[in-house]
Specification:
The complex is a heterodimer. Chain A is α/β, with parallel strands linked by helices. Chain A folds into three domains: about 110 residues, Alpha-helical ferredoxin (Fumarate Reductase Iron-sulfur Protein, Chain B, domain 2); about 160 residues, FAD/NAD(P)-binding domain (3-Layer(bba) Sandwich), CATH 3.50.50.60; about 150 residues, FAD/NAD(P)-binding domain, CATH 3.50.50.60. In chain A, the strands form four sheets. In chain A, strands 3-2-1-4-16 form a five-stranded parallel sheet. In chain A, strand 1, helix 10 and strand 2 form a beta-alpha-beta unit. The longest helix of chain A is centred in the C-terminal third of the chain and has 20 residues. Chain B has ten helices and 15 strands. Chain B has a seven-stranded mixed sheet, with helices on both faces. In chain B, strands 1-5-4 form a three-stranded antiparallel sheet. In chain B, a hairpin with a 7-residue loop joins strand 2 and strand 3. The chains are: A alpha/beta, B alpha/beta. At the A-B interface, strand 5 and helix 14 of A face helix 1, helix 2, strand 6, helix 9 and helix 10 of B.
């Protein structure tokens, strides 16, 4: 029997999609999903599950897809993940489940991500009720932040019967899923809002517009409002800048600002009041997934858009798929290039970014070859907007307003593997603890903390 | 207007601000807290139309709802952490410009409640634009009004009034707090520098989230970059780069004005279909 190759999913034509904000990848049909599912050999010791931070029972759900019982597959995933449509779209599967797939050794791994997305989307469209909560145990738990870590923690606690309230600082829940990841990779209403709505069906309350540390403190939540435990999943929202000349010129923004305007504030939609500026040529500094999201957003807003990155293409930290998509859409990659100054007009607007050429030297502590400046290689790239996508660090607000909550020199909250912090009853996980990482790692941390909170409260 | 927002009212301190988003499609607009009533759970804000989103806030009628109201944000004024006895020994002057009078009021009121006497100068273009005069008179030791056209009080700028108080009326101050248009704060800073008076300003930079996430509100203070939303909004006036701050504040002016104009045209072009006018 001829081997069935990995089933490709349909995508919007690159030329067309580079001008709109609709989703790039279109997912599987049920026939495609069942065909792809038939490739899974159902390993006895599934390496994919071990590599999944939330331990989704991958072979089990895939065999149900193969049999065409998608509702049952959805219930299997829901035991471990409340966000299948999100994770199917944004997880770095190539480093996790798919990276570990036996089929991937000699050929192509099973498309676990696309299958998960298919199951999540199908379940939503067909109103499959995947989860149910135990009766209330009367214990209140507060979750700070409605991003992936908080949502995962809240889901598990609600299933166990806890009365969970999530406090979100912004006006819409979802954290980075809402403000960071663009619509064309992760539809907001159709996917993010819908999966979050499943949480409210479990009885989870979400209070938006509450900035913990300002509107209310952790201490008050525990002492005055009767929360037995608090989970902090406030993410890593503080943008980094390069500290080079000209960074405060008009037309230099953080990727966070640019993406928040575009995603959370819908600046690409003219019926919203949000202003956004690109001008004719945009330079995005950085090479991670956020840089790719920013540059592809700028391109869609009509500007010629470039990535400027100090290392080589092989070192780009973004997912291969994102780089591939960006190239298809006409993004230009200026590799081994590092900005040294931003130049402005007499009115204080960006006109160009001055860069130097880099070459790769010996591998550094991280194992990556460290870039070194090529002497005398200074040159200017004319541009109208510079977007800094250099990473983010945790917001100091909660640490600075909570007594006895230990943090490290990077401002990350110190927590053990279960999420326990230096303060009794206060747990933390996700980017707030690790610094900027992935959606799924944050979800894994949220789940571990939920289990630890359950144990903690039972022993009170 | 007074907004019912119990959580915000319970935590608000002088110097802090809120972010208001009036409806689904509106912008997030930072507004300084003018007053708060912890018992009633309400917060007072004052707005002025600059773009289409602020127009929407001003169109809100009593009893209607604002979709999002988040705060209190930013650091409270530094004097709330000071020793009250020491504070009482200080000669404090507040300078309020235009709409900036509103956020000055809770600070002066707080001082009065602690038994600290303060002088206040309110500056405005003309008499009809002087706000909070009565409220301010009730909490200030001496209240001076300065209008550009002389229609009320002193004829001239707040900086000229300040000079007059010091040079001709034998006044002197240890601290000046100035809140108003960026250009006024800039010139107050220049003036107080001459007299070597410590001066605090409250910056109204552009913001998106107001929690330290976007960096739109970057400001140079003493040569270092700060975020107005989390490091401020109050800064040492003599260290602030006002020219940069004013330039950054105007970044979206053309886009904003275009949207506001379109909104205005839409309104004016609107024909009432139910025969009201």
């Amino acid at each position: 029997m001829a081997k069935q190759p990995r089933v490709a999913q349909a995508e919007q034509d690159p030329k067309v999609r580079a001008t709109n904000f609709e989703e790039v990848s279109l997912g599987y049909t049920i026939e495609q999903a069942m065909l792809e599912a038939s490739r899974c050999i159902n390993c006895k010791n599934p390496r994919c599950v071990v590599q999944c931070p939330v331990s989704v029972k991958i072979p089990e759900f895939i065999s149900l897809v193969k049999a065409g019982d998608i509702a049952a597959a959805a219930k299997v995933i829901a035991e471990d993940s409340s966000l299948p449509s999100v994770c199917g779209r944004v997880c770095p599967q190539e480093e996790q489940c798919e990276g570990a797939c036996i089929l991937g050794i000699k050929g192509e791994s099973v498309a676990v991500g696309i299958l998960e997305r298919f199951v999540g989307d199908w379940a939503r469209k067909n109103n499959v009720n995947t989860v149910s909560a135990m009766p209330s145990n009367g214990n209140k738990v507060a979750v700070v932040g409605s991003g992936p870590a908080g949502l995962a923690c809240a889901t598990d606690l609600a299933k166990l019967g806890y009365e969970v309230t999530i406090f979100e600082a912004l006006h819409k829940p979802g954290g980075v899923l809402q403000y960071g990841i663009p619509e064309f990779r992760l539809p907001k209403d159709e996917v993010v809002a819908a999966e979050i709505a499943n949480l409210t069906k479990l009885g989870v309350k979400i209070e938006c517009d509450v900035v913990v540390g300002r509107t209310v403190t952790i201490q008050d939540l525990m002492d005055k409002e009767g929360y037995k435990a608090v989970f902090i999943g406030s993410g890593a929202g503080l943008p980094k800048f390069m500290n080079i000349g000209g960074e405060n010129l008009n037309g230099v923004v953080s990727a966070n600002e640019f993406l928040t305007r575009a995603n959370l504030m819908h600046a690409y939609d003219d019926s919203y009041d949000t202003p956004i500026y690109t001008g004719s040529k945009v330079v995005v500094v950085g090479g991670g997934n956020v840089a790719m999201d920013a540059v592809r957003t700028a391109q869609r807003l009509g500007a010629e858009s470039h990535i400027v990155y100090r290392r080589g293409e092989a070192e780009l930290p973004a997912r291969k798929e994102e780089i591939h998509h960006a190239k298809q859409e006409g993004i230009q990659f200026d590799m081994l290039t590092n900005p040294v100054e931003i130049l402005g007009s007499s009115e204080g607007w960006v006109e160009a970014i001055r860069c130097v050429k880099m070459e790769l030297g010996e591998p550094d502590a991280s194992g990556r070859r460290s870039p070194q400046v090529v002497k005398g290689s200074e040159f200017d790239i004319e541009c109208s907007l510079v977007i800094m996508a250099l990473g983010t660090s945790p917001n100091p607000l909660i640490v600075s307003t909570t007594d006895n909550l230990e943090s490290n020199k990077w401002g990350c909250i110190v927590a053990d593997d279960s999420g326990a912090t230096s303060r009794s009853g206060v747990f933390a996980g996700g980017d707030a603890v690790t610094g900027a990482a992935t959606v799924i790692l944050a979800m894994g941390a949220g789940r571990s903390a939920a289990a630890a909170i359950d144990t903690y409260i039972k022993n009170l | 207007m007074d907004i019912e927002a119990p959580r915000v009212a319970a935590s608000a301190q002088p110097g802090q601000f809120v972010i208001v988003k009036v409806d689904e499609k509106g912008e997030r607009i930072p507004l300084t807290i003018c007053d708060y009533n912890r018992e009633e759970g309400s917060v007072t804000i004052v707005t002025q139309v600059v773009g289409s989103s602020s127009q929407k806030i001003c169109d809100i009628e009593e009893g209607e709802y604002i979709q999002n109201f988040v705060g209190p944000l930013g650091k409270p004024s530094e004097f709330i952490y000071e020793n009250i006895e020491e504070l009482k020994s200080k000669r404090v002057l507040f300078i309020a410009g235009g709409l900036g009078t509103a956020p000055v009021y809770p600070q002066v009121k707080w001082m009065k409640e602690q038994g600290v006497d303060c002088d206040v100068i309110i500056g405005a273009k003309t008499k009809s634009l002087v706000i909070f005069e009565e409220e301010m008179a009730a909490v200030a030791k001496n209240l001076y009004i300065a209008t550009d056209d002389g229609s009320a009080g002193f004829k001239g700028l707040v900086t000229q009034k300040l000079k007059e108080l010091i040079d001709n009326e034998g006044k002197m101050y240890d601290v000046v707090v100035a809140i108003g248009p960026m250009i006024m704060m800039k010139f107050v800073a220049i003036t107080t520098k001459e007299y070597n008076i410590r001066t605090i300003v409250s910056l109204n930079s552009l913001m998106v989230d107001g929690t330290g996430m976007c960096g739109a509100c970057r400001v140079s203070v003493g040569g270092k970059t700060y975020f107005t939303c989390v490091d401020g909004p109050e800064f040492d006036a003599h260290e602030v780069d006002f020219d940069e701050a004013m330039r950054r504040q105007g970044q979206f002016r053309t886009i904003e004005q275009r949207k506001a104009k379109a909104e205005q045209e839409r309104r004016e072009g609107h024909k009432c279909n139910i025969g009201l006018h």
